[in-house]
């Protein structure tokens, strides 16, 4: 879809939620961790793009 690896965290969260380990705390923790991974990678890319734009003359 987007060829961005951070989105695979959602697949891992889905496996944790519905793949046999479906006791209650794992579902929200898995999706929260996936969201955290996506947001952190997005923020890092955003900061890197800003730094690259500022470095160009």
Please, could you describe this protein's structure?
Keywords: Membrane, Transmembrane, Transmembrane helix. The longest helix has 30 residues, at about 25-55. The chain has one domain (about 5-50). It has helices at about 10-20, 25-55. The protein is an all-alpha fold and about 55 residues long.
Give the strand content.
under 5%
Number of domains: 1
Tell me the number of helical segments per DSSP (H or I, 4 or more residues long): 2
Quaternary structure state of the chains depicted: single chain
Strand tally is: 0
Radius of gyration: 15 Å
Biggest sheet: strands, sense, closure?
none
SSE order: HH
Structural class: mainly alpha
- Unreliable stretches: none
Average pLDDT: 84
Whole-Å distance between the termini?
A: 34 Å
What general outline do the C-alpha atoms trace?
elongated
The helical percent reads over 70%
